[in-house]
């Protein structure tokens, strides 16, 4: 299964690992196919780390989500450059719509043990590394209580799932 994330800076294509992260891929696909990701933004971008999106409008409003899913971080996939993983709160099984794309290898985000559970990788980029690199370099600042918010909107125009 392939996901194309179309942004105002270009498109990125990712191979989704529905064999290793079936719950997470099904969840991401549901958000994509319902249009949830249309016209939202990457709201957190940290150079040398990752770009996070999937939850906020350009106006800074957080969208209502479906129920949280089970964390599949024990799937053996690594948070390396170009992989997509689910964002979550400190609660292990709290991921909903937000995801991040690793801009570098972030092994410390992998499952270590049940006390250091990690973040579930569910796909890997196959095209668009130049777009990811452009996103990583956007100027960021503070917006309300958020840090690392892009000064110029990085818009997710649409996420398309190809079977």
TrEMBL record:
<dbReference type="Pfam" id="PF00160">
    <property type="entry name" value="Pro_isomerase"/>
</dbReference>
<keyword id="KW-0697">Rotamase</keyword>
<dbReference type="InterPro" id="IPR044665">
    <property type="entry name" value="E_coli_cyclophilin_A-like"/>
</dbReference>
<keyword id="KW-0413">Isomerase</keyword>
<dbReference type="InterPro" id="IPR029000">
    <property type="entry name" value="Cyclophilin-like_dom_sf"/>
</dbReference>
<dbReference type="InterPro" id="IPR024936">
    <property type="entry name" value="Cyclophilin-type_PPIase"/>
</dbReference>
<dbReference type="GO" id="GO:0003755">
    <property type="term" value="F:peptidyl-prolyl cis-trans isomerase activity"/>
</dbReference>
<dbReference type="InterPro" id="IPR002130">
    <property type="entry name" value="Cyclophilin-type_PPIase_dom"/>
</dbReference>
<protein>
    <recommendedName>
        <fullName>peptidylprolyl isomerase</fullName>
        <ecNumber>5.2.1.8</ecNumber>
    </recommendedName>
</protein>
<feature type="domain" description="PPIase cyclophilin-type">
    <location>
        <begin position="1"/>
        <end position="161"/>
    </location>
</feature>
